[in-house]
Every structure is written in structure tokens, then in C-alpha cells.
Amino acid sequence: MPKKASQIGYFVDRVCPHTPWKSACLVQAIVGKIMLQRRKIQSTVFLGVAKNKQDELKAHAWLKSDNTYLTGYREMNDYTTIAHF
Fold first, then answer.
1. N or C: which end of the chain has fewer CB within 10 A?
2. CB distance 8 to 36 below 8 Å
3. Is the separation of the CB atoms in 39 and 4 below 8 Å?
4. What is the per-residue pLDDT across 15-39, written as a single tens digit (0 to 9) for each?
């Protein structure tokens, strides 16, 4: 994986908690994907779902480039992938 992709993942992870709006997992994955596309680096956004303790549906998104997960990877194993693009 290009070093630039890793740097973008690090940047998104560091900046998003400090935005004046809520930068949840989907926002982070899409921002990272756009930044990678501008640099002509391939990536995939994954969407997953799971049920919480109250049996309610919850969702999560994460971003992968080459064989490295860039955003959302800390929680991704708790979700079943339903789509990727």
C-alpha cells in the first residue's frame, strides 16, 4: 500500500474528532475515499450492520486500501458486511 494511503487514514483519524460537526464512521470513510481518489489510490468503503443489546439494528462503515484498513477498523469485526463500493 502506498505510504500516502496510510497517511490519509492517520489524518482522518486525527482530525475527525475535532470537527464542529459529528464525523461518524460513514463520514470518515467517505472523506478518506475522496482523498484517496484525488491521488488515484484505489480503496473500498464497507458498510456493515449488527444488533445491539436491545435487539436494535446499528450500522458501521470502514475504509480499506490495498490490504490495510484505514478508518473504522477498531469496530469492524462486530459487524456483518452488507455492501462495499
1. C
2. yes
3. yes
4. 999 999 999 999 999 999 999 999 9
| Domain of residue 57, residue span | 3-84
Mean pLDDT of 51-78: 96
C-alpha neighbours within 13 Å on the C-beta side of residue 75: 16
What pLDDT score does 3 carry?
85
The end-to-end CA distance of the chain, in Å, is: 18
CA 80 to chain centre: 14
> 2 pLDDT band (50/70/90 cuts)?
low
Q: In angstroms, how far is CA 40 from the centroid of its own chain?
A: 18
For position 70, what pLDDT does the model report?
97
Structurally, the chain folds into a number of domains equal to: 1
Tell how strand 80-84 and strand 68-71 pair up. unpaired
